[in-house]
């Protein structure tokens, strides 16, 4: 089972994603409320996939992406973005994000995206 | 959670909880910014993030009216964030934000009560867009054009080592279709281009502009994303690479000899290097130091209050059971050293457990106090009075149950102070008071009670007017001179009482103060009112901390057992016959160290037959409440006992002087005395 770390400052979003992923054969090994915590938990848990929300306090998704990638080039990172964040998403892609999902998402979307990872 | 025990789906539960929290957070920030007429970068970011989160979550839950409002406010603050130099109309902006908060709170409330979130946010959205429009116009030339930077960006890639590679290259044509609804197809196309650039020696694509314009999104949705490229990679590898595209719906991949004309046309254009990752603006550096409230809550979990209630009940039962075991009549007279040692250890652990469970239910009163900020803000605006709200002791913790019951009374008291207590600006200045009125909310611990005090520096209560009004309503029993200030002021707590000539929007209907008293009574508290004419008023609410488990002194009267709360006891002693004196009306008193204390004989009060009637045969227990002290005459002392307070069952009407009951270790029932109730007789 692929191991996933979910990062989002909203508990609701973390729960949504977690529920959808767990229903489809993914194991959620940890949750992070901001980029800084995501980096710490990444180092601790070494998940296969990391999801990063873009807008977060303390450290945003883009910065966390860069730092996690600097730590481990091969980690698979999926950005969770909202409409209107095209510029940051592009930057994320350039910085090594494997892909991105736009909020609001539904289970079908999640399954389609994550099964490719 | 629904009251009937049917718990909601967890997603909704979390949504409602988080939405409520975020609205409270937002309200605090807004009031602060509005007050200071200043909005720092941190605040802008926080407000933006809150709106962004509410927007996303509400969209997931399909609460559209909330989503569109949040989106509109998010846009507003996005603009403010990106245009630091813009002049902000604080009043209109925060009026809008606070109205938005009220709307969202209202919808959330409807949902919580199993209703429909059917409110319309249209008016607010119109306000929001017009505000944004105004800001944009006023800000005209300053609007940053971020894409200027990117005009140089690549639309095609031509490898720098095109001519040096000696491997055989093959031209391909790929057309990519994305899944419906995956959004941002232009950025997805950009991703493909970015990922291919390392393995191709040249690449051209249609639509060309996948960076600046969002128009390409439609084109890609209609015709797919067309790429012509050349690579030495084998076809299977190319296919593999392209099939790995996330949200790929359909892929057409062809090996071609020549590019089709539309691609050829692009080849003619000049080569430009793909953009380098830009340095992200330092908008985040400031936030690293600032840990927001949401960050602080990482080490906190939220627990359903009903679980805590069950836990507390259970702990109470354990305390009783523990007593039943260790004080079991079967063990009477036995020599049990090891057993005693073990039971002491058990007692110690039970105490610890009890302390911790009680502390879990304790919550600082800060949130309740801070809620008052909004009321002060709204009312002071409406009444055109300048008011400062001072908060002291907000870290004081009280049981969650108390918080639930104190909120409404506090609101009412604050409203009263603002509406009737504080004078208009001119009047204040004429009295030599500062123009700005002051309302103080204070919370402090005193023994096993918590005091919550609401003070204002207004005109104070009019003793005469209150007395007159009470007299009119037939409530007075003594002439005015014989009543203390406290007694007269407490008339306003009686139902139907109001000395206000006019009923304002906020107060004056006379249904307020008695409801406040009822609420306070229900948590076992008391209210006392002090006032100085011209200087201000002070309302003190005393609330006992969780009654559940108390330390008591077991006493016997006849064959009945009573528990007197230790906190009310000053001392106990064996009186001498001649120490007891009676006054003209037959009321008994006893002199102790020069002071006279009334005597209450429990066997008479509770009508119990006992052989112990003469003073020198029984025991006197001196007790006190917050105003009086007296001596209770009982048969004998049994001992100190920790008891679990159980409310009197419903089928027994409220008995004056009895606060509750408990089961002792030997299985007997003991009634717990309400000392205030007895002393009031």
Question: Could you characterize what this model shows?
Answer:
- By secondary structure, chain A is of the alpha/beta class.
- Chain A has a single domain, classed as Response regulator (Rossmann fold), CATH 3.40.50.2300.
- In chain A, about 45% of the residues lie in helices and about 25% in strands.
- Chain A is built from 5 helices and 5 strands, in the order βαβαβαβαβα.
- Chain A has helices spanning about 10-25, 35-45, 60-70, 85-95, 105-115; strands spanning about 1-5, 25-30, 50-55, 75-80, 100-105.
- Chain A has a 5-stranded parallel sheet with strand order 2-1-3-4-5, sandwiched between helices.
- In chain A, β1, α1 and β2 (about 25-30) form a beta-alpha-beta unit.
- Chain A is globular, with a radius of gyration of 12 Å.
- The model of chain A has no long low-confidence stretch (mean pLDDT about 95).
- With about 675 residues, chain B is of the alpha+beta class.
- Chain B has 5 domains: about 10-145, Up-down Bundle (Four Helix Bundle (Hemerythrin (Met), subunit A)), CATH 1.20.120.160; about 155-265, Histidine kinase CheA-like, P2 response regulator-binding domain (Alpha-Beta Plaits); about 310-360, Helix Hairpins, CATH 1.10.287; about 365-545, Histidine kinase-like ATPase, C-terminal domain (Heat Shock Protein 90, 2-Layer Sandwich), CATH 3.30.565.10; about 550-680, CheA-289, Domain 4 (OB fold (Dihydrolipoamide Acetyltransferase, E2P)), CATH 2.40.50.
- Chain B contains 21 helices and 23 strands.
- In chain B, the strands form 5 sheets. A 6-stranded mixed sheet of chain B has the order 15-19-20-18-17-16. In chain B, strands 1-3-4-2-5 form a 5-stranded antiparallel sheet, with helices on both faces. A 5-stranded mixed sheet of chain B has the order 7-9-10-12-11.
- In chain B, β22 (about 660-665) and β23 (about 670-675) form a beta hairpin.
- In chain B, α1 (about 10-35) runs antiparallel to α2, α2 runs antiparallel to α3 and α12 (about 305-325) packs antiparallel against α13.
- The longest helix of chain B is centred in the first third of the chain and has 27 residues, at about 10-35.
- The interface between A and B is large, with 44 and 49 residues.
